[in-house]
Amino acid sequence: MFEQQKWSGWAAPSLVAGLFWLVQAAHVTGTESILPALASLPLWIIGSVLLGSGVSQLFWPGDLRITQLGALAGAAGAFVSLAYLFVIGLWGGLGLTLASLLGAWGAGRMALHLEPHYEGAPTPTPTIRLAAKVAVDESILGFEQFQSTGFALDGTIERVIDEVDRTHALFAREGFLEKPDAYHMRPPDLTDPEIKAEVIAGYPVEVLRFESGYAPAEEEPGRARWLGYDACRDGWAYVLRHAGPSRPWLIATNGYRMGHARIDIGLFERFFEEEGGLGLNVLIPVLPLHGPRRIGWHSGSGFLGVDAIDLLHAETQAVWDMRRLLSWVQGQGAPAVGAFGLSLGGYSTALFASVADGLSCAVPGIPVTDFRRVLERHAAPHQMRYAEALGYDFDRIGEVLRVISPLALAPRVPLEGRMIFGATADRLVPPDQVRDLWRHWEECEMVWYEGAHVSFMNERAVWAGVDRALRENGLVR
C-alpha cells in the first residue's frame, strides 16, 4: 500500500507563523474592552488558517489545497497586519507581517518540495527566491479555490454528462474525433467593425467592437444556452497603432481572468512602445466570457470549470473571433502578423496558429495545452469523486475537447516561426503541459525559466527569447 510522506520540515514556517498570529490574537483579546476583542477576530482567523495549513502539511501533505490555502492566508495576513501597526505597535505589527510572509513562503516551499519531476522538462532548483515565486502562484490558486467551494447540486453535473455524451456521439458521426480540424468553419472576413477612440492607461487606443457571428451548429448540445450569453454575441479588441507607414502587427491574447483594457494594455505595452519596446502595432482580442464579454461579476467565470460544453464553445468562438480579427489586420496593409498569448491566451494562440493561415510566427507563453488534465489537477478531489459517481467521464470529455486541442491539430506556422516559453515550477500550468506542446510542435525553440506562472513578467530569458523570435520572423525592424 502507498505510504504518504509525513513529517517534512517545510511545514515549520506555516506552523510558526500560525502560532505567532494566535499568540498576538490572545494578547489583543485579553482585555475587558469590547473593541480590542473585535479587533482580534482577523488575528484568530488568519492564525488558525496558517496553523491549520502547517499541521496539514505535517501530517497529510499532498492535497494541493493545503499549501494553496496557507499561501493565501499568508498573503492576506501581510496586508491585514499593516492595520495592526496602530493596534499592537510597530514591532508587533511588523512581526505579524514577517510571520505572514514566512507562512506564505513556507507553503510555496512545501509545494515545490511535493511537486513531481516531469520527464522532458527541467527540474527546478529549490531556492529561496523560487519558493517565493511559487508562493504567489499558490496564493492565486487559493483564492480561486476559496471562491469555488461547494457542490453543483442544481442538476448542472447531470446536464453536463448528458451533453458530453450527446456531443461525443455527434462528433463521432461527423468524423470530428478523427479529423478535428474539420470542426472549425472558416469565418467571414471582418471589414467594418465599430471603432471608438479612447485614451486608456495613457495610450491612444482604438476599441473595436463587432458582431461575432459565431454560433454552435444547429444540432450541437448547449447551443441555445451559449447563444443566450448576450455579452458574447459581440467581439471586442483593443488596438494600439502607430501613425505613419504600415508596420508589422502582433495579436496578443490575454490570459484567464483578464480582458480589461487597462490591465491588458499595461501587460502588452512593451510590444507597442518605440523606446525600450518593439514598435509594433498591437491588437489585443478579448476572449469570450472576459472583460466586457463577461456574464458574471468576475472576468472569465464560466470559461474553465466543470461545464465542458461551455468550454468547448468558448474556445471555438475565441479562435473564430481571432481569425476574423486577423482578416481585419491584414486588410490594414500589415507587412507581417505574429501571435502571442499567455496562459489561457497561450492555449488560444496555439490553437489559432493551427487553424489560421497567414501568421509569420506564434509564441504561446506558459500555455495550457490539455484542459482535461488541468481540470483533474485543480478541481477539489471530493467534488470530482461526487461528479464521477454520477458518471462524469474525463476520458469522454478529453475526446470531445480534441476538436479544440492544439495537441490534436498540426500548426500552420512554419517551424522557424514557432517559439514557446514555460516555467519549471509553474503551479497553475504544470511543465508537462508546456512540454507536450513543444514536442507536438516538432521541438521548436523553447525557453524554460526558473520561476512560476506569474513570474514571467520579470524573467529576462523570456523576453530575450520572445524578442528574438519576433525579430527573426520579420516583425521587428
Topology at a glance:
Layout: H1 12-29, H2 34-39, H3 41-59, H4 64-83, H5 90-114, H6 128-147, H7 156-174, E1 194-200, E2 203-211, H8 223-227, E3 234-240, E4 249-253, H9 261-272, E5 281-285, H10 308-331, E6 337-342, H11 344-355, E7 361-365, H12 371-378, H13 381-390, H14 394-400, E8 419-423, H15 431-440, E9 445-449, H16 460-472
Parallel strand pairs: 4-5, 4-6, 6-7, 8-9
Antiparallel strand pairs: 1-2, 2-3, 3-5
Task: Specify the CATH homologous superfamily of the largest domain.
Answer: Alpha/Beta hydrolase fold, catalytic domain
CATH class category label of the largest domain: Alpha Beta
The count of helical stretches stands at 16
Question: Which oligomerization state do the chains in this entry correspond to?
Answer: single chain
The H/E string reads HHHHHHHEEHEEHEHEHEHHHEHEH
Describe this structure in words.
By secondary structure, the chain is of the alpha/beta class. The chain is built from 16 helices and nine strands. It folds into two domains: 9-118; 156-472, Rossmann fold, CATH 3.40.50.1820. It has helices at 12-29, 34-39, 41-59, 64-83, 90-114, 128-147, 156-174, 223-227, 261-272, 308-331, 344-355, 371-378, 381-390, 394-400, 431-440, 460-472; strands spanning 194-200, 203-211, 234-240, 249-253, 281-285, 337-342, 361-365, 419-423, 445-449. Strands 1-2-3-5-4-6-7 form a seven-stranded mixed sheet, sandwiched between helices. Strands 8-9 form a two-stranded parallel ribbon. α1 (12-29) packs antiparallel against α5 (90-114) and α5 (90-114) crosses α6 (128-147). The longest helix has 25 residues, at 90-114. The radius of gyration is 24 Å and the shape is globular. The model has no long low-confidence stretch (mean pLDDT 93).
